[in-house]
Amino acid sequence: MAHKFYLETSFLLFKICRNHSLNFKKCQVILYALWFSKLNLRKISSNLTKGKR
């Protein structure tokens, strides 16, 4: 579910970047940041659930 959300978000970002002709490198950085933060969030949430047990 989260992966689908990420794909849709990245697709939207890509469309927005193309429409506003922003620097593609900048958009890639934003996408990587989103992806990285999502991975970190998953790691943090799994750590939290482990701590509760």
Mean pLDDT across all residues, rounded?
A: 73
Structural class: mainly alpha
**Using DSSP, what is the number of strands?**
0
Could you say how many structural domains there are in total?
A: 1
| CA distance, first residue to last residue | 24 Å
Strand residue percentage:
under 5%
Assign an overall shape: elongated
Output the number of helix runs.
2
Sheet bearing the most strands, described? none
* DSSP helix fraction: over 70%
- Helix and strand sequence: HH
Query: How big is the Rg?
Result: 14 Å
Unreliable sequence segments: none
Summarize the structure in short:
With 53 residues, the chain is an all-alpha fold. It has helices spanning 2-19, 24-52.
Summarize the structure in words.
By secondary structure, the protein is an all-alpha fold. The protein has one domain. 89% of the residues lie in helices and 0% in strands. Helix 1 runs antiparallel to helix 2 (24-52). The longest helix has 29 residues, at 24-52. The mean pLDDT is 73.
Which secondary structure elements does this structure contain, and how are they paired or packed?
Layout: H1 2-19, H2 24-52
Helix pairs in contact: 1-2
